[in-house]
Design a protein that fits this description.
The protein is α/β, with parallel strands linked by helices and 382 residues long. It has a single domain, classed as Metallo-dependent phosphatases (Purple Acid Phosphatase, chain A, domain 2, 4-Layer Sandwich). The chain is built from 10 helices and 19 strands. The longest helix is centred in the first third of the chain and has 20 residues, at 2-21. The protein is globular.
Length: 382
């Protein structure tokens, strides 16, 4: 019996150490404020071609919920605010329903700060940007003409998806006013929500949709202002010679001489179409597949690619390197002699704790050098 107990302890310890090594953690300490939905919003939907309705949820579970609604004309500037119950803060911004797709290529030699896979953690995202001097404590843009690149998966697995998305929306406007740019590059979880796949979404959003008398699929569909805004975003961009995309470039792309603009067009035409394998192997299938697609590919970390495979993919777009999220890393680090940089790390959650505790990281490109940047504003060259 003693030997069995010892064996089980050894096996259990080995399993825990193996899990920790591969990024596993223990979730504990949920904060009940995650269920506080008073002042939740805004949720903005097209009422018709000329009118949008702005909705805020009021109330609580004990006394019940109500929805505060107000109509505005399309293409007018709409005042809005977004409340974050964890620290009783809010931020204000304006909603403008006139969107156009951003460029696929940028060349200006300004600094770039990139972060990915925030997964609905507003406080983590906000505080990281403050510590790394993208915004000040009043959430004002102080990054000048710099590029803030958000490399996908800013929704799901948390209770602050709405706050995170409107915060990106606000930052985008603030950056433009100061000569900077916010690049919201979509990941597979943005696509999953746009396609009605909520397996990774917080249960909160099922209840929010019910309170709004909507189906959950309507939160990000073409009748939703935030959904229409998301659908205007790119899946891949080249910024000062570095490519940014959530997943990566499958070697099969070398068989097709496509521009970034063409790639973005093909993928965006499928944003609202759930992928399933087809018999005919088309470029559309290659780009949107949940295995080989730009937003889904894990080959830099899972496939047996050669240095030449990676470099030929970059050469096709005159890129010196590619920055990706999607595949979890223990830290921001480079592969393939610096040609691939993985920046998906496990960030802290707003309303819960993990053991071991997580610390955010991102990437800074400054004067042609690549730096791993930390939650406290420190940086080290890669």
């Amino acid at each position: 019996m003693k030997h069995i107990v010892i064996t089980l302890l050894i096996l259990g310890t080995t399993a825990v150490l193996f899990g920790l090594y591969h990024g596993a953690s223990l979730h504990y300490g949920d904060n009940p404020l995650m269920m506080d939905w008073d002042k939740e919003g805004p949720y903005v939907f097209y009422k018709n071609d000329s009118t949008v309705t702005v909705n805020y949820i009021k109330g609580n579970q004990s006394n019940g919920y109500a929805v505060e609604k107000k109509d505005y004309a399309v293409n007018t500037t709409i005042p809005a605010s977004c409340y974050f119950p964890l620290d009783l803060t809010s931020f204000e911004f304006f909603i403008n329903t006139n969107y156009k797709r951003p460029a696929s290529t940028y060349t200006d030699n300004n600094n770039i700060l990139a972060i990915s896979d925030i997964e609905s953690s507003f406080k983590t995202f906000r505080d990281f940007l403050i510590q790394n001097k993208v915004i000040d404590v009043n959430l004002n843009w102080i990054f000048g003409k710099g590029h803030l690149v958000l490399v996908g998966d800013f929704v799901d697995r948390g209770f602050s998806a709405t706050q995170v998305l409107w915060f990106i929306y606000k930052l985008e406007q603030d950056a433009v006013s100061k000569g900077g740019v916010v690049h919201f590059i979509l990941g597979n979880h943005e696509l999953k929500n746009m396609q009605g796949n909520y397996e990774s979404a917080s249960p909160k959003y099922f209840h929010v949709a019910a309170i709004l008398q909507k189906q959950q699929t309507q939160l990000y569909d073409s009748t939703s202002v935030i959904g229409k805004w998301m659908a205007s975003k790119n899946a891949i961009e080249l910024i000062n010679g570095t490519l940014f995309t959530h997943g990566g470039l499958h070697p099969g792309l070398l068989e097709h001489q496509l521009s970034l603009e063409k790639i973005n067009m093909i993928i965006s035409n499928n944003y609202y179409k759930p992928y399933y394998p087809k018999a005919e192997k088309t470029i559309e299938q290659l780009l949107t597949s949940t295995n080989t697609g730009i937003c889904w590919y894990r080959g830099y970390f899972k496939d047996n690619l050669s240095q030449d495979d990676v470099e030929r993919g970059l050469k096709q777009f005159n890129a010196k390197s590619i920055v990706v999220g999607h595949t979890l890393q223990t830290r921001v680090k480079e592969r393939y002699n610096g040609k691939v940089i993985g920046i998906d790390v496990k960030h802290p959650k707003d309303y819960s704790k993990n053991f071991p505790s997580k610390k955010s990281e991102g990437l800074l490109i400054e004067d042609g050098k690549y730096y791993r940047i930390l939650y406290n504003g420190q940086k080290e060259e890669i």
